Amino acid sequence: MRRVNFFSARNFIGFLRRSVKPIGSASATGWANWLMTFSKTKKRILKVMQLFLDSSDPKEILTAREWGVIDGVTTNPSLIARAGTAMEAALRAVLDASPGPVFCQVIGWKEVEPLKAQARWLSAFSNRIIVKIPMSVAGITAVRQLKQENPKIKLAVTAVSTVAQAFLVAKAGADVVALFNGPLDLEQDEPVQIVAPIRAIYDRS
User: Fold this and answer.
1) Active-site residue 40, yes or no?
2) Which residues are CB-contacts of 166 (< 8 A; sequence separation ≥ 6)?
3) Strand 155-160 to 176-179 pairing
4) Closest Cα partner for 51 from 69, 63, 31?
5) CA distances from 93 to 62, 82, 87 (A)
6) Which entry of 40, 132, 147, 171 is annotated as an active-site residue?
């Protein structure tokens, strides 16, 4: 399993201040939801860190790419819709602009078959796409069945907010666990606090 965890900008800076001092931060008007992926070892807090820009705007992506700091792009249906073009054209433009993998999310969360059909289509569209599937009973079921059908399909489970959910994601066979950072912070485990136990579970699996 490719064990990866995500944070949005709000917790990103706080995490870095606690974990890797000193470090600077940069911001730009109109840019939001930088996502960080990382894996942790016993000897070092951060072994690998990657930055993914949450955008479907090729101009934004190319600008960030020129900075030389982003590794890929993450997007979702609302961002694709905001692009104002046909879905295939929007996806192709994002893929062309991105320096690496592109996370694309399926629509829906209650029914297994529609999730699987969309995941197959996205995966076939480009081998650089990592398909995001929502954390739900149908989502976990879809991940398990898709991996049994095609072990090479690259899947992420998004909106994960607890250690128990992350464990289910690993059991289902997903390549990426995407920790949710948003309103659920007030009700669920804090994303920063659950990274260590999730990492420990994955290292033992």
Assistant:
1) no
2) 160, 177, 179, 194, 198, 201
3) parallel
4) 69
5) 11, 13, 10
6) 132
Under-50 pLDDT residues of the chain? 1-47
Helix (H, G, I), strand (E, B) or coil at 150: coil
Q: Which 8-state DSSP code applies to residue 65?
A: H
pLDDT at 195: 82
Residue with tokens 């909106």: 159
Q: What is the pLDDT of residues 126-178, one digit of tens each?
A: 999 999 999 999 999 999 999 999 999 999 999 898 899 999 999 999 999 99
CA dist 135 and 150 (Å) reads: 20
Separation between Cα atoms, residue 144 and residue 196, nearest integer Å: 25
The secondary element (H helix, E strand) that includes residue 60 is helix 58-67
Tokens 């579970």 locate to 201
CB atoms within 10 A of CB 84: 8
Q: Please work out, in degrees rounded to the nearest 5, the angle formed at the alpha carbon of residue 180 by the alpha carbons of 107 and 158.
A: 35
